[in-house]
Write a structure and sequence with these properties.
CATH architecture: 3-Layer(aba) Sandwich
Radius of gyration: 17 Å
Helix content: 25-40%
Strand order of the largest sheet: 5-4-1-8-9-10-11-12-13
CATH topology: UDP-N-acetylmuramoyl-L-alanine:D-glutamate ligase
Shape: globular
Distance between the termini: 29 Å
Order of helices and strands: EEEHEHEEEHEHEHEHEEEHH
Number of domains: 1
Amino acid sequence: MKLVCVGDVNLDYYTNMKKKFLGGISLNFAVNAKELGADVSIVSCIGDYQGRYKNIKQILSNLRINTERLHVKHGKTPEQNIKIIDDGSRKFIGYTEGVLKNFKLNKGDIKFIKSHDVVIVPFSEGTIRLFKQIMALDYNITRISDFSEDSKYGIPFKIIEKHIYNLDIIFIGGNERIIPKASFLSKKYKKLIVITLGKKGSLAILDGKKTFYPTRPIKAIDTTGCGDAFQAAFTISYLVDKKILRALKAGTKQALKVAKHFGGTKYEI
């Protein structure tokens, strides 16, 4: 299974500790997918400011994630400011797009993406242009996307419905109030929609049929990246055997593992 993650590679700045960790939705997904045994590539753009791009590339090289199409541009790597609350939950308190702001996929990137079986791209601040490019691909490739309440756009159900025929797995980070709308779309378009509900567990809806899996209480250090880890593990498990409950269990297990360390990937920059 060859996966390509398209989107954001960030520096997550933890204001409490004055430390930076390698992060970003796409990067977190890639790191967890690789840990679980997938063949993973990443397509994104980072900045040459302060030379940190060398550290980023070295980390990904050590993890054996393909960075052939990880572009380095003049400027700053995207940065997300994060504040950790006492219970381990995180609060996003400011995002700078940096070089990702004007990044678009070129012909080489698209050709590279088409050499994979699965493409993952989030719909979030900084990645909307990339999301639209992936949705417009005239090519038979499994497409997966993440839509979350963390985004300043909220959960864009109109965007989801507009592109739903081009999406194979739709992940939404939210709460119970979005279940009726997600159920409606799942049944109407016969699509798989997976909702992560934080401490309350996760819910998968396929053609309107719901499968719920609870999480278990743990002492969380940092919940940053837990949703991305869940999505990576769910995706790999589900695409292997199409067993929804098994995939929910795999996703939960990986998310709980990430919650036990600081940083979405634990790699300090």
